[in-house]
Amino acid sequence: KAGVTQTPRYLIKTRGQQVTLSCSPISGHRSVSWYQQTPGQGLQFLFEYFSETQRNKGNFPGRFSGRQFSNSRSEMNVSTLELGDSALYLCASSSSQGFRTEAFFGQGTRLTVV
Amino acid sequence: QQQVKQSPQSLIVQKGGISIINCAYENTAFDYFPWYQQFPGKGPALLIAIRPDVSEKKEGRFTISFNKSAKQFSLHIMDSQPGDSATYFCAAFVTGTASKLTFGTGTRLQVTL
């Protein structure tokens, strides 16, 4: 069974630009969540999508948005990039929402904003 | 507001020794507590998890101890090996929000020969 796939693995963007990150969950998983990992703030929850609907949202500005497609693949978009957005962005998938199922993480997308 | 506090920040243990990482939580609504292991360049991987109705859970060399009244839980790695060198995160979530994990700040473990 293929794991969670995130693309691209690495990105370098300029301040003010926007970026789109992609996540393909494990086959059959309908819940996809996104996390930002930085040395200073650790792992922070961005948002969760289930069946194309955003179910949970963390404390991030509106520049961070996402969506989920009918095949459960998800994209995350960050507009007007700031230097502080440099981080490892992790996607996790789980089989269902509301149950104690484990979240499987992808390898992440390393975003560098210059 | 940091809802899960983790210590120590870093830990050096000799091969064969016991590694102990501690976490404390504030939100009494948390009812599932997983531990994740992360190697450089990789995403976190679930190591072991526990529910608050259990005081201890063991899987191989890894044991979680849980103290519900103190709102604390810890990871013990017995017979630590160099291959265990990684960053460990405790986490917590509330049933019904399965994918909204609240993570501790992480412990970088180094196991020396």
Nutshell version of this structure?
The complex is a heterodimer of chains A (114) and B (113). Chain A is mostly beta strands and 114 residues long.
List the quaternary state of the chains: heterodimer
Strand pairing plus helix content of chain B: what structural class?
mainly beta
Helix content of chain A: under 10%
List low-confidence stretches of chain B. Answer: none
Strand content of chain B: over 45%
Average pLDDT of chain A:
92
Output mean pLDDT of chain B: 92
Order of helices and strands of chain B: EEEEEEEEEEE
Which two chains touch over the largest interface?
A-B, 29 and 24 residues
Main sheet properties of chain A: 7 strands, mixed
Word description of this protein:
The complex is a heterodimer of chains A (114) and B (113). Chain A has 114 residues and is an all-beta fold. In chain A, 0% of the residues lie in helices and 53% in strands. Chain A has no helices and eleven strands. In chain A, the strands form two sheets. In chain A, strands 2, 4, 5, 6, 9, 10 and 11 form a seven-stranded mixed beta sheet that branches. In chain A, a hairpin with a 3-residue loop joins strand 4 and strand 5. The model of chain A has no long low-confidence stretch (mean pLDDT 92). Chain B has 113 residues and is mostly beta strands. Chain B has no helices and eleven strands. Chain B has strands at residues 4-7, 10-14, 19-25, 33-38, 45-50, 56-59, 62-67, 72-77, 86-92, 102-103, 107-112. In chain B, strands 2, 4, 5, 9, 10 and 11 form a six-stranded mixed beta sheet that branches. A five-stranded antiparallel beta sheet of chain B has the order 1-3-8-7-6, with no helix packed on it. Chain A binds chain B through residues 4, 31-33, 35, 42-45, 48, 50, 56, 58, 90, 92, 94, 96-108, and chain B through 32, 34, 36, 41-46, 49, 51, 89, 95-106.
